[in-house]
Amino acid sequence: MAKLKKRIVVIEEDDKLRDGIAFTIEHVGNYTLVNTYKFFNDALKNIHRDCPGIIIIDIAVSDIQNLDAIRALSSKFPCQVVVFTTIDAPQIVTEALSLGISGYILKNISLSGFIQYLDIISNGGAVLSPSITKIVLDFFHLNPYTPLSHRETDVLRLISQGKTYSEIALELNIATETSKTHIKNIYKKLNVNSKSEAVRKALNDKLIPVGVD
């Protein structure tokens, strides 16, 4: 008896990448591409009709806040969820994993490499990009008594990488003014007055991972 092909739905805002993923999946032969969507809410409306076995999603889609997409999928329809994104914030990664996703893959991989990961997931496995594995390991070595919130830790990690207010806002999908507010709160909680002081104290107190970029 022939093995049923896994039904796949792709949610990706970037038109070129979405088309590339779709083309690759269609020509592999192991899967049935049911549908592709630019926006998450359109996919959610049609999820029972599409009946996917695997959903590939970039959690940076603009019409829903990061992990809320995974939560909505979990409550609406049971399936394997594969995150395919540029977001590597430790708190987001670890929380996504806690929600039961089957894969967290960064977009610095080739589409052929992505399909290899997809094959592992389709056969019941789970995958992480190598750098995501390091991020997760580093995260669990951090100080559990941090005074910072998850979002403040993400902001401070990006500050340590030299990111600007606008770059932080873009990466975390928040307003620039919100990133500034987070930084002010970080200064207050750590009793510092500058970015360099904040980063130095955070590294000394193991509030952010060392060398993650």
From TrEMBL:
InterPro entries: CheY-like_superfamily (IPR011006), Sig_transdc_resp-reg_C-effctor (IPR016032), Sig_transdc_resp-reg_receiver (IPR001789), Tscrpt_reg_LuxR_C (IPR000792), WalR-like (IPR039420). Residues 141-206 form the HTH luxR-type domain. Transmembrane segments: none annotated. SMART domains: HTH_LUXR, REC. It holds the Pfam family Response_reg. Residues 7-122 form the Response regulatory domain. GO terms for molecular function: DNA binding. One of its GO terms (biological process) is regulation of DNA-templated transcription. The modification 4-aspartylphosphate is found at residue 58. CDD domains: LuxR_C_like. Keywords: DNA-binding, Phosphoprotein. This is Two component transcriptional regulator, LuxR family. It comes from Ohtaekwangia koreensis.
